[in-house]
Amino acid sequence: MTYEILARKWRPQLFEEVIGQEHITQTLKNALTSDRLAHAYLFSGARGVGKTSVARILAKALTCIKGQGGNPCNKCASCIEITNGSSVDVQEIDGASNRGIDEIRNLRENIRYLPSHGKYRIYIIDEVHMLTLPAFNALLKTLEEPPEHVKFIFATTEPHKVPVTILSRCQRFDFKRIPLLKIEEQIKRITKEEGIKISDSGSSIIAREAGGSLRDAESLLDQVVSFTGLNVEDKQITEVLGIIDRDLTYKISQAIIDGNSKLCLEIIDEIYNYGYEIKEFYNEIMNHFRNLIVSMISQDSSQLIDLPDNELKETKKQAKQAGMERLLQSLNFLINREVDLRYTNNPRIALEAILLKLSGLREYLSFDELIKKIEDIEKRLDKSISTEHKKSFEAAFGDKEYPTKETPMDDGKKWGEFLHYLTTKNRAMANILKEWKPYKFSENRIELPYRERSFTGSYFNDPEHYEQLVAYTQDFFQSNIKIVFKKQNDPKDLKKSSGEDRLPEPLKDIIDIFEGKIVKES
Ligand SMILES: Nc1ncnc2c1ncn2[C@@H]1O[C@H](COP(=O)(O)OP(=O)(O)O)[C@@H](O)[C@H]1O
Ligand SMILES: [Mg+2]
Ligand SMILES: [Zn+2]
User: What is the residue-wise DSSP string for 349-412?
Assistant: First the structure.
């Protein structure tokens, strides 16, 4: 016996068999029974959600004389021909391979002939958005004055690419992605009928992987069965399809929440050894944190989270335990670090580094700020200002030789705008400058207070940083603006208690940067 692929075998033949598109099938049935039909229909929607199936049912219903309640009989010669694709009155044209004007001219020649059996000649044009512009124009002429006996059914995955002139002459139906639960049900129905043994969780693994497309679900099932035979085990599904075990996603999220770095590494190791795609796994983790957050915000989360009931429960539990604060930080962090994975040849190491940081940080500061700040402190601890540097700094920034043309700018606002711009270019630098309101701010000169003792003061001591700043200002203000640093006694220093004065420099910086204060000294 030859194996017929499930998608073909399970193509719906009646409107009632079409899953998840009731808003469309009901309307079509009503139109058919009341004989209020459009000349042209446009079916839009993702792949594998029933567009072609509905187009064929509609075509059959239009030509079948025995059909009832809007449905075709599926038994008469006309119905059988259409099902087999051998009808002369119903033509399916693939827009992708018949894109040109000639094909459409051909079609226009053909539509003059009356149908051989029934009332209509029907043209189903799939992927209609692929037609060329001249072809669309030719088609438009037909649509403007369609012969009584002609019906068009267009299908497309990209309706926005169909010219408005065409759209406006069609009755349009948007096919939805099919909800996870309905896909799951259909898998259960199919496997039962086909004598395939599969667990409930197995069905839901496949359903989830299908991403709203029933065709995809069916062909995934095909793949699995061709490998495993009629007894399908969950583990085989994940193996054959290369799907990351959901348990691992839960486990690693929990490890992140608990701050268990070691466990994070172990799970990454497992993922890696399985040969899973690391970037895919990262997406899974992000998606899971997204779900955790949504489950806390929305009472009835099943609308917004496409998960089977038992997993939704699990997700809610985990979310509650972690708390919103921590979840938001984690998701934010993951989003910001996604680029680290994009350009690396060592995704495993990148993932390890990201998750080590994420699991290691449990403070209630935005993680990004926190890390930036810690990196800044590290730098500060690493290098003290060499006198060599100081000399070049003073030479470069000596403020005598540049006479100021005092045309004050709207400093507060302009400066603010510049900082905003700088944030997009160099976040660290912008953060440092945020604290520094310029003394003087004119067309060709910016004077900035420079606190020698503070870490941020020494930041621009690095010629590279200084040059970057000059370049940014020139770029932004579109003038040859000079940056001048003026030494300043830190007013904060004066205010500091004598206790804080005794603190070592780096610690003062930490207090500065974190905007903290000494509560108790031990
Ligand atoms: N809504 C649906 N209900 C039932 N089966 C569907 C549905 N959508 C897709 N399928 C399954 O997928 C196969 C391909 O669907 P098809 O109608 O060709 O999708 P599309 O044209 O939207 O890409 C069908 O033969 C059927 O097995
Ligand atoms: Mg199709
Ligand atoms: Zn029939």
Answer: HHHHHHHHHHHH---SS-HHHHHHHHHHHHHHHH-PPPHHHHHHHHHHH--SSS-----B--HH
Ligand 1 atom at minimum distance from 47 CA: 23
What's the CATH code, domain 6-174? 3.40.50.300
Give the Cα separation of 147 and 39 in Å (integer).
9
Q: Which CATH architecture has domain 246-364?
A: Up-down Bundle (1.20)
218 Cβ below 6 A of ligand 1: yes
Question: Is the CB of 52 within 6 Å of ligand 1?
Answer: yes
Query: What whole-number distance in Å separates Cα of residue 183 and Cα of residue 51?
Result: 16
Quote the crossing angle between the two packed helices 347-360 and 261-274, to the nearest 10°: 160
**pTM recorded for the entire structure:** 0.65
Atom 17 (ligand 1) nearest CA:
50
Q: Which CATH architecture has domain 180-241?
A: Orthogonal Bundle (1.10)
Q: Is the CB of residue 139 below 6 angstroms from any atom belonging to ligand 1?
A: no
Index of the ligand 1 atom closest to the CA of residue 126: 21
Q: Which ligand is closest to the CA of 87, given by its number?
A: 3
pLDDT per position as a tens digit, 99-141: 888 888 888 888 888 998 889 999 999 999 999 999 999 899 9
